[in-house]
Amino acid sequence: QVHLVESGGGLVEPGGSLSLSCVASGNLSQMNVMGWYQKAPLNGELVGYITSGDTFYYGNALKGRATISRGSVKNEVHLAMNGLKVEDTAKYFCYYRYFSRAYDTQDYFGQGIQVTVSS
How many angstroms separate the CA atoms of 25 and 63, rounded? Predict the structure, then answer.
């Protein structure tokens, strides 16, 4: 089991910036993917992810306005958002893809954290 805790959401004015963080704990795997979804996990838009090999992928959400990075500790992932728009208002979910030694995968999601863009 993997437990994810998100932090850093809140209210920001249009054009502003906001950073989210997520810490994973529990039964972590050396090979993994950590990332962020916008709105609802798997039914929302992928913001992006970073692999344990430091490969990045960015989805359609916040295109060009999001930067994903690992923390100093590998079980942390951060999302820096800039140039925020009212339509970016959503719940953002951290996710973690666990890889077994046989390369089976299991996805875990955080509870989600609200980001509201409003003047």
Answer: 29
Q: How many residues does the chain have?
A: 119
Sheet strand arrangement including 66-70: 2-7, 18-26, 76-81, 66-70
Distance between CA atoms of 27 and 47, rounded to whole angstroms? 24
Residues forming a β-bridge with 24:
4
Task: Tell me whether strands 76-81 and 18-26 are parallel, antiparallel or unpaired.
Answer: antiparallel
2-32 pLDDT, tens per residue? Answer: 999 999 999 999 999 999 999 999 999 999 9
User: What gap in Å lies between CA 58 and CA 110, rounded to an integer?
Assistant: 19
Question: How far apart are alpha carbons 73 and 41 in whole angstroms?
Answer: 24
